[in-house]
Amino acid sequence: MSLKVNNLGFCYRPESWVFRNVSIEVPKGGRIGIYGNSGCGKTTLAKILASFISPKEGEVVVDGENQKREGFQPVQLIFQHPEKTMNPLWRMKDSLCESYVPEKSLLDAFGIRDEWMERYPIELSGGELQRFSIVRALHPETKYIIADEMTTMLDAITQASIWKGLLEIVKERNLGLIVISHEMAIIDKICDSCLNLEDYCHA
Amino acid sequence: MKIDARKKVIASLVFSVLFIGLIIVLSFTIGEKGLETDHTMKNHSPSLLALFGTDSLGRDMLTRTVKGLKFSLYVGIVGSTLGVLIALFLGILAAVGGVYVDRVVMWFVDMFIGMPHLVFMILVSFAVGRGAMGVIVATAVTHWPALARVVRNEVMAIKKAEYILISKNTGKSRWFIVRKHILPAIFPQIFIGFVLLFPHVILHEASMTFLGFGLSAQQPSIGIILSEATKHISLGNWWPVVFPGLALIILVKCFDNIGSSLRILNNPQTRYL
Questions:
Q1: Is the pLDDT score of A145 beyond 90?
Q2: pLDDT above 70 covers what percent of chain A?
Q3: Element (H, E) at B105
Q4: Residue B165 and residue A52: Cβ atoms within 8 Å?
Q5: CB B161 to CB A50 under 8 A?
Q6: ipTM
Q7: In what order do the strands lie in the sheet with A75-78?
Q8: Domains of chain A (ranges, CATH numbers)
Q9: Chain B contacts of A98, Cβ < 8 Å?
Q10: pLDDT digits (tens, 9 = 90+) for B166-200
Q11: Residue B118: which residues within 8 A CB-CB, separation 6 or more?
């Protein structure tokens, strides 16, 4: 049971590879960190893993099966900018409960208050929105979580509390976790192993 | 927009809605009596007895004008509603259906835009078998292409939004995404498009009946009134042309006003300025 990536390569223009020959294996319950300079393809890799875009080379194997295009994706991505991940016309409760209805304890773990539910995304701060997008990604069928610069725009205290909440649930449900970040401190603290994506760049 | 300008926009909106409402109310309350020929009342100029005067058969022009506008409004509603529905369907289909579907649909749109509009409508009304039905069908099936293109571009712009991609990756169907995410987002555009289609449809209805395609001569319609009246204008009877023509222009301008006012009020960049 693992999220496995074999010889993954991606390019936006033919033969101009962003990265190539990337192979990672994240076991269930494992934690891997990915870092690298701006523009080395971290977010692109995250999007491929979560099936937002298709790789040009190689394959993504989730729990022994090739990644499927339709239906619920067991690999869920938490984006860097939560304000873009909420429909601006929906109330927060509609965005949150779009795919499943989270339990009260899960909301409490991330400090989501009831009064936020009736608001629109524009009426909440970035940190508050990010809590919603994390809870939304923690669907009961989710097996792997990718946190793409999840807390980069937050202050240190909020960062710590959000990571604490997420790590508890990841541990409890035995989820695989991929942390993408600039900050080596976070990766060192959280992850079992790490990978520098720049090693795979063919600039 | 300054406060005064904002008041002006709202005032023109209210005036337009009131004028259209007045015509609708009049068209239902005015009796059919004015449509009967009355040879004692031929060619009267406008007076208190007949506000818009009477025509060469003694029919009351006010009644004819209002009844004609009622037909115009009816054709307008059917034509714009159908136009919007076709545009919505094809626009969304083109945007979410993939590259090849998009090309085929846009080819159709280009083809329809490229064809001379009036000639096409005349062909359609002949094919349907003339009569009121011919006019309604002809105007209904020819007014969607421009709006379809707008809808397609709007959908193209938001379909790559992250919240829509996330929705898809949590297993939501395309139909769910179209219904819950896309339609509410493009609703303002569609509504404004709907209102702005009205004047087009109404003017085309008038030009078709003016050219003699569609209704028989005794049925009230602005186009027929105008084409009849042009024969009498050389005798100095100006009122059968001026009043119905003016009424048509004001009606069309009212719909145009409503559409543009809504566009201004809906646009966040012009709403509060």
A1: yes
A2: 99
A3: helix B99-114
A4: yes
A5: no
A6: 0.88
A7: A75-78, A144-148, A176-180, A31-35, A193-196
A8: 2-200 (3.40.50.300)
A9: 167, 170, 172
A10: 998 998 888 899 999 999 888 888 888 888 888 88
A11: B204, B207, B208
CATH number assigned to the domain with residue range B3-271, chosen from the 4 options 1.10.3720.10, 1.20.1250.20, 1.10.10.10, 1.10.510.10: 1.10.3720.10
Sign of the Cα torsion B118, B122, B123, B125 reads positive
Among chain A residues, CA nearest to B162: A85
Tell me if B121 sits within 8 A of B140, measured CB to CB: no
pTM of the model: 0.78
CA distance B60 to B42: 9
Mean pLDDT of A198-202: 78
The bridge status of strand A2-13 relative to strand A193-196 is unpaired
d(CA B152, CA B105): 10
Place of tokens 């100006």: B238
Nearest to B170 among A86, A89, A139 (CB): A139
Residue B271 has a pLDDT of: 62
User: What per-residue string of b and e applies to A181-196 under the rule 16 or more CB within 10 Å gives b?
Assistant: beeeebbeebbeebbe
Low-confidence stretches of chain B (pLDDT < 70) are 1-3, 34, 268-273
Q: What is the pLDDT of residues B124-150, one digit of tens each?
A: 888 887 778 888 888 888 888 889 999
Which whole-number Å values give the CA distances from B95 to A89, A183, B165, B184, B221, in the listed order? 21, 40, 15, 16, 39
Of B164, B172, B162, B169, nearest to A76 by C-alpha is B169
Structure tokens at B249: 């222009």
Q: At what angle do helices B183-210 and B239-266 cross, to 10 degrees?
A: 170
Neighbouring CB atoms inside 10 A of A8's CB total 21
pLDDT at B100: 93
